[in-house]
Design brief:
The structure is a homodimer of 196-residue chains. In chain A, 75% of the residues lie in helices and 0% in strands. With 196 residues, chain A is mostly helical. Chain A has a single domain, classed as Tetracycline Repressor, domain 2 (Orthogonal Bundle). In chain A, α4 (56-80) crosses α6 (106-115) and α7 (122-142) crosses α8 (150-162). The termini of chain A are far apart. The A-B interface holds A 28-29, 31-32, 115-119, 122, 146, 148-149, 152-153, 155-156, 158-160, 162-163, 167, 170, 179, 182-183, 185-187, 189-190, 192, 194-195 and B 28-29, 31-32, 115-119, 122, 146, 148-149, 152-153, 155-156, 158-160, 162-163, 167, 170, 179, 182-183, 185-187, 189-190, 192, 194-195. The structure holds a DNA duplex (30 and 30 nucleotides).
DNA sequence: TCGTTTTCTGAACGCACGTTCAAAATTTAA
DNA sequence: TTAAATTTTGAACGTGCGTTCAGAAAACGA
């Protein structure tokens, strides 16, 4: 934390501690995720967290940044590569669930943090809804989608996706691929222009 | 708490404290809702809560019971009175938002509690999903609805409704009636048997 | 090798929490 | 009016929390 340029140890410890924080938050909940528990998981003294991140808020902030960056990097390219908005929306949903399959604890921890007491990371949630809304505007412009309220639809889509990590923590055998297909079909019907 | 039959003071205090707990939980979040804050809101000493409810868990339990009972009493009769499953589902959604309009803090507090650290009240959430699922089975039996997975659909509908209290706390001018209509339309399209 | 810098330890501190309980205040009943 | 029962007070206690920091250990550079 002292050096201007990050050393190897610095980078490795930060990554390790962030990962341990994700696991503890996902498994015990944000309320039980104390610095002592996280340090214990990492096999390290409590002071190390303060040393590398300043304080607990710094650690949480690093977790949010890391998870959000990883998730966007995985999903965004897939979505924008789709030829139609309908396929874009489908990909948005399925790639979200794919991310959960690859990183079972990451999204759960992120949602715990966003929901936590103060609204410090409310902006992250708002950004996620805006990202969904972009795809919906795309489909309304091309005429693929009907004239629904994009705010309500985007909020609902995010709520549907964000409900999954909790289900997954209760039943880790949940078939995420099947769940993703079901959700994609559901919102495909909900967004399509009504045919008479 | 001593008397076998509830005193007038006993009942009044219990109701007052439960209401204060709802307000504090809804406004400050479950994490910040300490007994000291709740007692302060009621203009009373901390010991009073322990005296009337045994401990904090007893108070929370009373809040859950009271809110759940009030909500079900308001909504269930309306839903089962509908002639079709599609109208039943619509009523399920709109009566939920009506309840939020009448009791802005109640559902928010209930959701905070259900989401809280331990899964003590996870059964309440599971029950709420089951209630939605019953309406979906109804519609699939009558042939009004398509062949979607009722578990996923019910989870999504509840997630969509449960997302609203948070929106409402961020923008208390939110038009709940319009939001309800939009949601009802969304899930009407999502549940309808596809026409070719 | 040896001095410097980086990293880590673990005890100490103040704070907020839920619970308890003796004593005081209030209400109830005769 | 008076004695018993109910209700309230508020301080005390133990626990777990995040933060701090002097000193020890390890890594680094010459």
């Amino acid at each position: 934390m002292r050096s201007e340029n990050e050393t190897f140890i610095e980078a490795a410890r930060r990554a390790q501690l962030a990962e341990c924080a994700v696991d503890v938050i996902a498994e015990a909940g944000i309320g039980k995720a104390s610095m002592a528990r996280i340090a214990e998981r990492a096999g390290v003294s409590v002071g190390v967290i303060s040393y590398h991140f300043g304080n607990k808020a710094g650690l949480i902030s690093a977790v949010v940044e890391q998870v959000a960056k990883t998730a966007v990097a995985l999903m965004e390219p897939q979505i924008v590569a789709q030829p139609t908005a309908a396929q874009g929306l489908r990909t948005l949903i399925t790639s979200n669930l794919d991310f959960m399959k690859q990183h079972p604890n990451a999204l759960r921890a992120l949602l715990e943090i966003i929901r936590a007491d103060d609204g410090v990371y409310a902006a992250q949630g708002a950004q996620a809804i805006s990202d969904v809304e972009k795809v919906l505007h795309w489909g309304q412009h091309t005429g693929e989608f009907g004239a629904f309220d994009t705010r309500v639809m985007a909020t609902t889509i995010r709520a549907a996706i964000d409900a999954v990590p909790l289900l997954l923590s209760r039943d880790e055998d949940l078939d995420l691929t099947a769940y993703g297909e079901e959700l994609a079909g559901l919102f495909d019907r909900a967004t399509r222009k009504e045919s008479h």
